[in-house]
Amino acid sequence: MSHQLKGFSLSVVIHTAVFLALVGANSFVVKEQRPIVIDFSIEKSPTNTVKDTVPPALVQDTPEKKAVAKTVKPRVLPPQPHEPPKRTIATPAKASEVPIPQDAPPETVDNADSPAQAASTERTSVVDAVASTTDAVKDDAGGVKAATNHTPAQSVPTKELAQEELKTRYFNKHFAYIRDLILKNISYPHVARKMGKSGRVTVSFVITSDGHVDNIKVIESSGCHALDDNAVETIKKVAPFPKPPITAYLVIPVTYRLD
């Protein structure tokens, strides 16, 4: 008896579980519906952000009311009588009143232009011209006499001309010699040759009256101190030079070039 009760209760439990499973499955299938999708995309306008998925069969078309156009009858105006055009009559323009010219007073002529006075004026001018010419001749003669008596003759700067002439002679005679003497004694510095340096040095110096050099300056550098110093030392080494009549100022360029 106990075995039958156990079997019956077990079958009841199994059937109940199967029934509940079927009921749950049916309820889940019935409740499944398509949701409404709302799109909040920034790129789209607000009017297109909501998308409704209701089938089109449920949407009822509302009939649009057609606007009834009212016919307006035109208003007919009664005919009006035509007025004849007015004729314009051209009236002659009134003659402008022109003032009557009055007689101008007669011009008075000066008596200074009479022939007698003109002749006297010409005689006076001729006399004045002769007198002025005579005075000018006298003044010129007197001026020359005064200049010879009182004005001293200007002194010619013979000293300056002599100095320039002496300087020119010295440069023409000794400049080539001084230049060649300096260039012959130039030796390429070992440091500059090792570094591969080359360039042009322009040196200025003063030759005093005893032939020695003074105030040696590099007015245009080669970009290498070894080359600049070599040019200055060479000028000091080959001095003194031929004695100038006055202090001489020379500018000599020296070019250093690697073969």
From TrEMBL:
Q: Name one GO biological process term.
A: protein transport
**Stretches for region Disordered:** 68-126, 139-160
Q: Which Pfam families match?
A: TonB_C (PF03544)
User: Where found, per UniProt?
Assistant: Cell inner membrane
Question: Molecular function (GO) terms listed?
Answer: energy transducer activity
Q: Could you identify this protein by its name?
A: TonB family protein
**CC terms in the record's Gene Ontology section:** outer membrane-bounded periplasmic space; plasma membrane protein complex
Question: Is the Ribonucleoprotein keyword given for this protein?
Answer: no
* Source organism per UniProt: Candidatus Magnetobacterium bavaricum
